[in-house]
């Protein structure tokens, strides 16, 4: 009887998870279908299932690959900014979080308090002073101007600090006895142990950088420097909307995120769960 109850509960859970997956995937399915529809049909019926399915074609994608030159400029800009942001953010944030976790130095708790405090400050409050700094440093309308404020993310520092608290300090003591330097201990021993946290944060930082709209909108000025979110937004104007590129282009923006998640997925759950329970 108990076995039958467990089997029924398992089936109910599986059905519930399938329903949740369908609900989550439904907007993506609608977006994909809409990207195959002519813009005139979209203007007539909107994004819905009430349309002539015989009109589905890949003309919108043909247009993107053959005529939409600006779109691929935006795409490359987003790839460069996101890739550099991920690498630098992981590098510096992991070092800061690791130092806060394993070293006892004067002002450590105060520094960590500042990190937590910055987490509670909305980015909108920091935009004006950051923009003033970019103007002073003459970094407006440049990759560096977009990337620089994101190099050390407070959420990443907090996450790596929590994860590093669970690292075995005995390995550090053994390495010191063997004559290893502190940098050698970090890069050769401790950093590989932080692999799951690096994978999880790579996905989160990649998502944040790839979808970032507000800060690049403030810093970037020229069309050739626009990222994808800004470029796609320029297609919606009071004088006309280019749905051909907008919706098909939106589908194409999902591809790098899927690749990033596939590449780091085996670290994602492990990194989040382990980092969440270490105190």
Layout of helices and strands:
Blueprint: H1 2-35, H2 39-45, H3 59-66, H4 69-102, H5 108-120, H6 123-136, H7 143-147, H8 154-164, H9 169-177, H10 182-193, H11 195-211, H12 214-219, H13 228-233, E1 236-237, E2 240-241, H14 243-252, H15 254-277
Antiparallel strand pairs: 1-2
Helix pairs in contact: 1-14, 3-14, 4-8, 4-11, 5-8, 8-11, 8-15, 9-10, 11-15
Helix content: over 70%
Largest sheet, in brief, is: 2 strands, antiparallel
- The topology string of helices and strands comes to HHHHHHHHHHHHHEEHH
CATH second-level architecture: Orthogonal Bundle
How many helix segments? 15
How big is the Rg? 24 Å
Measured distance between first and last alpha carbons = 41 Å
What topology, given as strand order, has the largest sheet?
1-2
- What would CATH call the class? Mainly Alpha
CATH homologous superfamily label: MetI-like
Structural class: mainly alpha
Regarding quaternary structure, how should these chains be classified?
single chain
According to CATH, the fold-level topology is MetI-like fold
Number of strands: 2
Question: DSSP strand (E) fraction?
Answer: under 5%
Low-confidence stretches: 275-279
Word description of this protein:
- This protein is an all-alpha fold and 279 residues long.
- It has a single domain, classed as Orthogonal Bundle (MetI-like fold).
- 75% of the residues lie in helices and 1% in strands.
- It has a two-stranded antiparallel sheet.
- A hairpin with a 2-residue loop joins strand 1 and strand 2.
- Helix 5 packs across helix 8 and helix 11 crosses helix 15.
- The longest helix has 34 residues.
- It is globular.
- It starts with a helix and ends with a helix.
- The relative contact order is 0.13.
């Amino acid at each position: 009887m108990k076995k039958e109850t467990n089997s029924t509960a398992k089936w109910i859970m599986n059905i519930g998870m399938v329903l949740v997956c369908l609900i989550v995937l439904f907007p993506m399915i609608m977006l994909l279908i809409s990207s195959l529809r002519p813009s005139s049909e979209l203007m007539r019926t909107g994004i819905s299932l009430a349309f002539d399915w015989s009109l589905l074609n890949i003309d919108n994608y043909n247009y993107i690959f053959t005529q939409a030159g600006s779109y691929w400029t935006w795409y490359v800009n987003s790839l460069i900014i996101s890739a550099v942001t991920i690498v630098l953010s992981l590098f510096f944030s992991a070092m800061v979080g690791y130092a806060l976790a394993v070293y006892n130095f004067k002002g450590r708790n105060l520094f960590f308090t500042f990190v937590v405090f910055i987490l509670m400050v909305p980015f909108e409050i920091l935009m004006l002073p950051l923009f003033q700094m970019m103007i002073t440093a003459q970094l407006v309308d440049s990759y560096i101007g977009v990337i620089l404020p994101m190099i050390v993310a407070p959420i990443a520092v907090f996450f790596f600090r929590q994860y590093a608290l669970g690292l075995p300090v005995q390995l550090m003591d053994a390495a010191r006895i063997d004559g290893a330097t502190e940098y050698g201990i970090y890069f050769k021993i401790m950093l590989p142990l932080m692999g799951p946290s690096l994978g999880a944060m790579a996905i989160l930082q990649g998502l944040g950088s790839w979808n970032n709209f507000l800060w690049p909108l403030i810093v970037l000025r020229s069309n050739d420097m626009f990222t994808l979110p800004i470029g796609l937004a320029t297609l919606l104007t009071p004088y006309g909307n280019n749905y051909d590129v907008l919706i098909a282009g939106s589908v194409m923006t999902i591809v790098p995120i899927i690749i990033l998640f596939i590449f780091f997925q085996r670290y994602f759950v492990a990194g989040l769960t382990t980092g969440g329970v270490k105190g």
